UniProtKB/TrEMBL annotation:
It comes from Actinomadura decatromicini. Residues 54-88 form the Insertion element IS150 protein InsJ-like helix-turn-helix domain. Keywords: Coiled coil. Residues 107-134 form a coiled coil. It comes from the Bacteria. Pfam families: HTH_28. This is Helix-turn-helix domain-containing protein. The keyword Coiled coil applies.
Length: 145
């Protein structure tokens, strides 16, 4: 056991490891065999915060016949999250229509790139306007041919 662990106590159906205060709390789900960190739950609102391996293990448990509510209660996460993961898994396998995960990732990357290019274009336009204001035309009296 790492030195950071002070003590381990058994609570109901899981092991809860008590860490030094600056360390994250980890919870070992005895029935699922998945290690859940409070860091994952804290960052759960951010897309991609939960590792794909964790999602895959949760989906495997549900596909093996465990009720969604039981798995959600044991992992201390909303059952709706698991239902969303199940739906996305059905879309990825082609059982339901919709955007696959890879299509979503490409779409997000394209939108980010478009936003970046629009920002660069706006900066370039501002720079051109500033140069026009600061530097007068060379021979303003002559007409260009």
């Amino acid at each position: 056991m790492p030195k950071a662990i002070r003590r381990a106590r058994r609570w109901r159906a899981s092991w809860v490891l008590s860490w030094v205060p600056d360390m994250p709390r980890l919870r070992w789900g005895r029935l699922t065999g998945i290690l859940v960190s409070s860091i994952m739950r804290r960052d759960a609102g951010r897309p991609g915060a939960i590792p794909p391996e964790f999602r895959r293990k949760v989906l495997d448990l549900v596909k093996a016949g465990r009720p969604v509510r039981q798995v959600a209660a044991e992992l201390q996460m909303p059952s709706q999250t698991i239902y969303v993961w199940l739906r996305q898994d059905r879309i990825d396998t082609g059982l339901e229509p919709g955007l696959t995960s890879t299509d979503q990732a490409e779409l997000i990357a394209a939108r980010r790139r478009i936003a970046q290019l629009e920002t660069e274009l706006e900066a370039t336009r501002r720079a051109i306007d500033l140069v026009k204001q600061a530097v007068p035309p060379k021979d303003a009296s002559k007409r260009s041919r």
